[in-house]
Specification:
Low-confidence stretches: none
Number of helices: 4
Largest sheet: none
Oligomer: single chain
Number of strands: 0
Number of domains: 1
Distance between the termini: 26 Å
Protein name: Transmembrane protein
Transmembrane segments: 66-89, 95-117
Keywords: Membrane, Transmembrane, Transmembrane helix
Radius of gyration: 21 Å
Length: 138
């Protein structure tokens, strides 16, 4: 993969494909991108091309955040339905309680991941603003 100005980005190797077989580690992916932007700025890369590349990856991250928000809402609805069964239909208590507890754990992890995505997107907005300022000044 390469940036808009033709510079190579070293994230498409076979090693990464093998590691990412079961999905990306979003924290590592975001940290790698931030480090890549910082090192390229330090090497004197064109801020405009870095901004273009950053905005493209920011769009991917925004899409990921939207998908996780939708899944989070669905999980919340299922969690509330399970809670209603636990409290309002005592005859289903054993099964609905297990489902409720599973959804509670799932919801906790989804909330954690969603807030990571949200905070990363907001951080990347600031990075885009900084790159935009550098591009205007160069």
């Amino acid at each position: 993969m390469e940036m808009p100005n033709g510079e190579a980005v070293n994230h498409g190797t076979a090693e990464h494909s093998k590691k990412d077989r079961y999905g990306l580690n979003m924290r590592r992916w975001a940290a790698r991108h931030e480090a890549d932007i910082e090192s390229r700025l330090a090497q004197g890369s064109d801020p405009k091309s870095l901004l273009d590349w950053h905005v493209r990856k920011l769009q991917w991250l925004q899409h990921e955040r939207l998908v996780h928000l939708i899944v989070l809402f669905i999980t919340i609805v299922l969690f509330l339905v399970a809670l209603a069964f636990v409290t309002l239909v005592p005859s289903t208590m054993p099964v609905s309680l297990v489902i409720y507890l599973i959804l509670l754990v799932l919801l906790a992890f989804y909330l954690r991941h969603y807030f990571f995505l949200e905070n990363t997107v907001q951080h990347w907005y600031r990075t885009a603003e900084e790159l935009h300022e550098r591009a205007e000044n160069s």
